[in-house]
Amino acid sequence: MLKDYFIYSVRNLRHRGLRSWLTMIGIFIGIAAVVSLIGLGEGLRIAIMSQFGFLGPDVLAVQASGLALAGPPGTGVVEPLSDKLADKIEKVNGVEAAFNRYIESATVEFNDRQSVGIAGSVPEGEAKKILETMVNLKAEDGRLLKDADSRKAVLGNNFGGDDKFGKGIRAGDRILINGADFEVIGILEKKGSFIFDNVVLMNEQVMFDVIGNKKEEVDVIAVKIDGTGRINEAKESIEKLLRKERDVKKGEENFVVQSPQQVLEALNSTLFAVQLFVYIIAAISLAVGGIGIMNTMYTSVLERGKEIGIMKSIGAKNSAIFTIFFIESGLLGIVGGIIGIILGMAFAFGLSVAGRAFLGSDLIQASISPWLVAGALVFSFALGTAFGVVPAYRASKLNPVDSLRSAK
Amino acid sequence: MKPIIKLEKVWKTYKMGDIEVNALQGLDLEVRQGEFLAIMGPSGSGKSTAVNMIGCLDVPTRGKITLEHHDISKLSESELAQVRGRKIGFIFQQFNLIPTLTALENVMLPIVFQSVSREKRIRKAAELLKIVGLSGRMNHKPAEMSGGEQQRVAIARSLANNPDVILADEPTGNLDSSTGETVMGFLQNLNRKEGKTIIMVTHDNNVAKHADRIEFLKDGKVIENFEIH
To answer: Is residue B96 less than 8 Å (CB to CB) from chain A?
Structure first.
């Protein structure tokens, strides 16, 4: 029986094709806005998260603050971290390991073309293993660094592509880093992080010799927390230690101890505010769309007075009439929703492709979860039915004698 | 023959603004099972109102209507719809088919409201369209058919739930006389061969001749009543 009502409703909507489409535009603009903007917002969150992704939940990063110049983390600060600090931090309660990292931008030359990469140091000995597991380093081609490797480099995944030099670098190729000859021994797996996909890894000593970093000026101290997971207590202890070592008062720190969690939380709350704003705008546009459905359904009830009278005279109960009109408004909502989802997805993915092509940025990417799609569908159906209830009720209550007499 | 429908002192008062209009003023009418009754009268005589009452489309202001010994003047809207659907088949002057549905779907519609399985419905509707000679037009929409064909679809539709009573309100009013004769032929057949009780409103004497009995209405009351056959 419902199936028959459904077929009948579909016929009616198609019969009034133009009006049905116009009504649905009101819905699908709203839904398309929600799907694309939330999808892009979610994509942005994932993109930014993956930039931090090299730091797991049990990792802290210590950097000197007070940036003099913009640049890779820890560079160009007024008072750099001393290379003696890592050993002291390692003794703090709850810390498993702490080691120095040096980071510097570097030019890479290959195939007679130049590009910029982020040179990063790899510590020696036990710390090397810890770094590799902490960051989950894996070579897609070739191998990772060993302590004895000199003038050898492991490159981020982007160097393996054709974009940078016209042809991808493979393990075994020779490149120039800041003018010095290097052998590439490995290409890393894709990380989705800007930093790690453009990294040029080399042993610490090589950083000092070739790139010119000073051993005394540490850019980042990577800290791994032990299994107890007391990350906040460890963080406070490290801050206390650093205040003493660098002779600063609480509140005037010239360093930061960051956990990736903290960064993500700050980021999430910002993105949430943006998304909330989007939701509000979308809600307004959807309310307008819903009123459009209501308007269309009222018109339909008026126009089809006679039809309602006929159906009642041949045995339709009020509930049957209500159901027919209710299905129609629900259909307007859900079909509008489906089109909106498709448009929204197309817009979001189109924008991310355009972003990559024209801006070369991975930050514009779309992430549309099944939940978002399902939510949008349910919502658009609910919208259609909510705004259809009153007209459907009105239709069901029409007096059969009067409606039979109506002109149309 | 025993009565199937009985109207006893039925009043119907409409309010038009401040003025009260009495469409029916104590109408007494009895319809016997299996008869072909014509209701005639000038416009404003209350014949349409009377037919609406008999068809359970409306309830009286005062008085009592019984259909097969059940008092229908006290039924709720949903109960009235049920009675209409099962016991009464309607044929209108304007045919009143649903324009977006095909002939077959139009005939099926009353059965849809009675929650019968789809297969049975299609079989029944196809069978009825065959009876009215429209097997070849099952998938045509009303707009694609002539007036006579539309009225035959309407006749098939009125029979969908196998009702005892057929109510025909000016069934030939929108048809030319020869098409009208065909339609009347079908109605007469239903009465004679199927034993359906037929109540027809008309003001055409030639059409009324097909009936067994005629009731004349004026000012909401029966003023004359005679048997033809």
So the answer is: yes
Interface size between A and B, measured as CB pairs under 8 A: 70
What would the CATH number be for the domain defined by B34-59+76-227? 3.40.50.300
pLDDT for residue A187 = 92
Q: What pLDDT sits at residue A341?
A: 92
Domain chopping of chain B, boundaries: 34-59+76-227
CB contact under 8 A, A317 and B82: yes
Distance in angstroms (rounded) separating the CA atoms of residues A314 and B170: 17
pLDDT at A214 over 80: yes
Q: Which of A306, A315, A401 sits opposite B85 (nearest CB)?
A: A315
The model carries a pTM of 0.70
Stretch among A48-62, A100-114, A249-263, B56-70 having the lowest mean pLDDT: A48-62
ipTM of the complex model: 0.89
Mean pLDDT, residues B57-67 taken together: 88
Q: Which of B112, B170, B201 to mutate to test the interface with A (most CBs of A within 10 A)?
A: B112
SS3 call for B91: strand
List the 305-364 stretch of A: residues with Cβ below 8 A of B: 306-307, 310-320
Mean pLDDT to the nearest integer, B3-29 = 88
B98 contact residues in A (CB cutoff 8 A): 307, 310-311
Q: CB under 8 Å, gap of 24 or more: what pairs does B10-18 form?
A: B10/B50, B10/B53, B10/B60, B10/B62, B10/B63, B10/B64, B10/B65, B11/B60, B11/B61, B11/B62, B11/B63, B11/B220, B12/B46, B12/B49, B12/B53, B12/B58, B12/B60, B12/B61, B12/B220, B13/B61
Out of B81, B90, B112, name the one closest to residue A1 (CB). B112
Pairwise CB contact (< 8 Å): B96 & A306: yes
By CA distance, what is B88's nearest residue in A?
A: A314
pLDDT at A70: 47
How many CA atoms, within 13 angstroms, populate the side-chain half-sphere of residue A364?
17
pLDDT tens per residue, range A334-386: 999 999 999 999 998 888 888 777 776 666 778 888 888 898 899 899 989 99
Q: Does B131 touch chain A (CB under 8 A)?
A: no
Q: Is A11 on the interface with B (CB under 8 A)?
A: yes
Contacting residues of A for B91, CB less than 8 Å apart: none
Residue B212 three-state SS: coil
Of A12, A306, A316, the CB nearest to B113: A316
Give the angle A73-A74-A80 at the CA atoms, nearest 5°: 180
B52, B78, B109 member nearest A314 (Cβ): B109
pLDDT for A71 beyond 70: no
Sign of CA dihedral A142, A144, A145, A146: negative
Position B142 confidence tier, pLDDT thresholds 50, 70, 90: very high
